[in-house]
């Protein structure tokens, strides 16, 4: 009877009075101040108030019900799609909204709606994935900056694919330890592309050198990445590099000279299609002819395969003798260039450059130690 009287009263009451009454009704409902027999009538009254022309009435409902886990869905869902000020109370706070509700809101809502969802605490993996599919850079940044959003590695990869050209996104994602290695490499490539496109870099370096310098920098970053990732992720990284056209002879030789043998072996397994155990056996114990034959199955030419075989034998001998990786690079650089193809010549030029860089680093280390001894 009280609810019936309330409904008759709201027909003539002023908007401010209706808002206060709506808030009181919703609070009484959420505090269980209304008897069991009247709860259904109270729910019907709140649903009726959803059609009130005054936004402050619906806002009063939203504020009073936002934190109540047993609030009627027939009231909560319409409020979540109401005007921004009203919807914000529900989207940010209501435990009634399920993951499916939030995914639907993200799909059909506005940019503001998606922004509200991104700010909601404790978002699940499913909701995060949905937001990244349809949301903006700002939504992705909000998720990455939050401490409670459950962002899966697959969603991180999707962030890189959709928003990897944004510098702030790259900075946030590269700081995450759970970023998959293939996505990390893709971001490294985007950093290189951004540098190459910089007018300042073009003015300082010159357009003709930018491509080569950025390519070398990205290759070095890839080699460094290969050293830091778990072995279980190597195959995924190698496949990503192959698909993107980055698994080049230059990169393979750099990895071998740098001692990244696990990465190199994973790359040969991928390119040759041979069994992993067989590839590792040939690299570790096979004769030069067997090693050359293995490399030729990857598509490398005969002279390039022979150069790789020489590198493997040098690495193998130095590993047994306990020598450093610089010996491999320096000794390769000293190889004769007679009867070598243009591709092999280019590879030897790269190796010579690596050897010179190693000597310069050795000189710096020598000078530092000498200065310390003299002090």
Automatic annotation (TrEMBL):
**Pfam family of the protein (one):** DUF2336
Among InterPro entries, the record links this protein to: DUF2336, UCP035865
Q: What is this protein called?
A: DUF2336 domain-containing protein
């Amino acid at each position: 009877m009280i609810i019936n009287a309330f409904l008759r009263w709201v027909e003539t009451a002023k908007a401010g009075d209706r808002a206060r009454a709506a808030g009181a009704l919703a609070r009484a409902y959420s505090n269980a101040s209304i008897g069991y027999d009247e709860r259904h009538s109270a729910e019907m009254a709140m649903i009726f108030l959803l059609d009130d022309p005054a936004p402050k009435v619906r806002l009063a409902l939203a504020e009073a019900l936002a934190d109540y886990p047993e609030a009627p869905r027939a009231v909560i869902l319409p409020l979540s799609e109401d005007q921004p000020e009203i919807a914000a109370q529900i989207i940010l706070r209501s435990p009634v909204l399920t993951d499916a509700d939030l995914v639907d809101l993200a799909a059909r809502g506005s940019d503001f709606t998606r922004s509200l969802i991104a700010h909601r605490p404790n978002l699940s993996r499913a909701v995060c994935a949905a937001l990244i599919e349809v949301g903006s850079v700002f939504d992705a940044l909000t998720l990455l900056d939050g401490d409670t959003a459950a962002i899966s590695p697959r969603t991180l990869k999707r962030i890189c694919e959709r928003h990897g050209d944004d510098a702030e996104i790259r900075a946030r994602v590269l700081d995450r330890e759970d970023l998959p290695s293939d996505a990390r490499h893709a971001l490294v490539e985007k950093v290189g592309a951004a540098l190459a496109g910089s007018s300042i870099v073009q003015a300082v370096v010159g357009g003709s050198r930018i491509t080569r310098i950025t390519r070398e920098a990205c290759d070095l970053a890839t080699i460094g990445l290969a050293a830091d990732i778990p072995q279980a992720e190597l195959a995924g990284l190698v496949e990503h590099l192959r698909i993107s056209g980055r698994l080049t002879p230059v990169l393979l030789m750099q990895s071998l000279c740098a001692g990244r043998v696990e990465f190199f072996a994973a790359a040969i397994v991928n390119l040759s299609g041979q069994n992993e155990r067989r590839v590792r056996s040939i690299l570790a114990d096979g004769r030069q002819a067997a090693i050359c034959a293995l490399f030729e199955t990857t598509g490398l030419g005969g002279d390039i395969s022979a150069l790789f075989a020489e590198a493997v034998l040098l690495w193998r001998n130095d590993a047994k003798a306990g020598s450093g990786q610089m010996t491999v690079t320096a000794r390769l650089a000293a190889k004769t260039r007679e009867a070598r193809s243009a591709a092999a010549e280019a590879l030897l030029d790269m190796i010579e450059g690596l050897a010179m860089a190693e000597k310069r680093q050795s000189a710096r280390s020598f000078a530092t130690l000498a200065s310390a001894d003299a002090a």
